[in-house]
Design a protein that fits this description.
Layout: E1 4-5, H1 10-21, H2 26-30, H3 37-44, H4 52-62, H5 66-70, E2 87-91, E3 94-98, E4 106-113, E5 118-122, E6 127-134, E7 136-141, E8 144-149, E9 153-157, E10 162-166, E11 172-179
Parallel strand pairs: 1-2
Antiparallel strand pairs: 2-3, 3-4, 4-11, 5-10, 6-9, 6-11, 7-8, 7-10
Length: 202
């Protein structure tokens, strides 16, 4: 059973609600994220759909998980995402479904990119793991661009700049898992940067 897509304006209203709860103006929020007040206003009014990277940045500015930002209020102590009942939210270049709940340790996301579209560059704390379910994409991490197709997986420190481009004529579907808890620093190979991954033992 396919996912149902509802209420393209939900994310904008949710951002406005969280901003209002904190007593922030558009300028206050703009100062916390890499967006102008005009861009934020267009997102809140649903005149512009935010990218995945923008949503992650906004969630961090509000101090909430991505699930808390884009999903409805939880009604149970656990989160169940049935395949026929998931709600997709429209974002720039495609659709996003959160598969995880409000628990703060990780985010599990289903990202669908439209043909020949891109998810703009993002960077954030923690680690990220990506698995391609369908289609072909070019995934850029730091200075490397890696072509990926169905069944390929990629794991990387999410603080490095990263972006995705659908290189095919069909929608590309990817499972993304992100962690958020800062950990001890380990230098990312070849970058001269620390990546936030704890040292492994054994």
């Amino acid at each position: 059973m396919s996912e149902r897509v509802i209420d393209a304006g939900w994310i904008g209203r949710r951002i406005a609600e969280l901003r209002g709860e904190r007593g922030w103006t558009l300028a206050n929020l703009a100062g916390r994220v890499d967006l102008s007040t005009t861009q934020l206003s267009r997102i809140e009014s649903a005149a512009r759909q935010p990218s995945l990277g923008t949503l992650i940045e906004l969630a961090r500015a509000f101090g909430v998980t991505l699930s808390e930002l884009v999903e409805d209020e939880p009604t149970t102590a656990y989160h169940l995402a049935r395949s026929g009942e998931r709600v997709s939210r429209q974002i720039a270049g495609g659709q996003l479904s959160t598969l995880s709940g409000y628990f703060p340790g990780l985010e599990a996301l289903l990202l669908t990119l439209d043909p020949h579209s891109s998810a703009p560059e993002a960077r954030h704390a923690g680690e990220e793991w990506l698995y391609v379910l369908a289609g072909t994409v070019d995934f850029t991490v730091h200075t490397d661009t890696v072509p990926l197709s169905r069944g390929d997986a990629l794991h990387f420190p999410a603080r490095l700049p990263h972006s995705i481009r659908n290189t095919g004529g069909e929608p590309a579907e990817m499972l993304l898992v992100c962690t958020h808890t800062p950990t001890a620093s380990l230098q990312a190979p070849g970058t001269g940067e620390t990546n936030g991954i704890a040292s492994y033992s054994g």
